[in-house]
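Is this the right way to post structure tokens for a design question? Let me know if I should format differently. Anyway, here goes:
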């Protein structure tokens, strides 16, 4: 009885593999298209203004990224990626997580010192 049930379930599963997926399409109105393009333009302006600062360009140059390549990559971002990046630039102040990173590094070094993996804090005689 259980073999027959398993065979039925497998047959049903195999039949469902060939069924087509349903795709949904809609017309995009003019107002939606204009709003999307103005939002993209605002997000692009936000990202470009942050990337136009001299210290940011210098850091990218130190990492080997040319300014033309940077501009091309920003222009190639999708609307969703550009919106996410612009939102993060507006929300996070520069260096906000620096204190947390320093604390985490210190904690990791302290744990490694405690278990004897490294010897940062020299023991005095």
């Amino acid at each position: 009885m259980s073999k027959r049930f398993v065979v039925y379930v497998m047959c049903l599963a195999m039949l469902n593999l060939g069924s087509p997926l349903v795709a949904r399409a809609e017309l995009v109105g003019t107002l939606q298209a204009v709003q999307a393009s103005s939002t993209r333009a605002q997000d692009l302006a936000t990202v470009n203004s942050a990337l136009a600062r001299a210290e940011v360009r210098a850091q990218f140059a130190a990492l080997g990224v040319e300014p033309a390549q940077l501009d091309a990559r920003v222009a190639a971002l999708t609307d969703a990626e550009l919106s996410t990046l612009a939102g993060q630039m507006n929300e996070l102040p520069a260096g906000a997580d620096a204190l947390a990173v320093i604390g985490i590094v210190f904690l990791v070094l302290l744990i490694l010192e405690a278990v004897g993996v490294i010897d940062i804090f020299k023991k005095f005689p």
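Format looks fine. Someone answered above. Worth noting: The first helix runs from residue 2 to 17. The chain has a mean pLDDT of 76.
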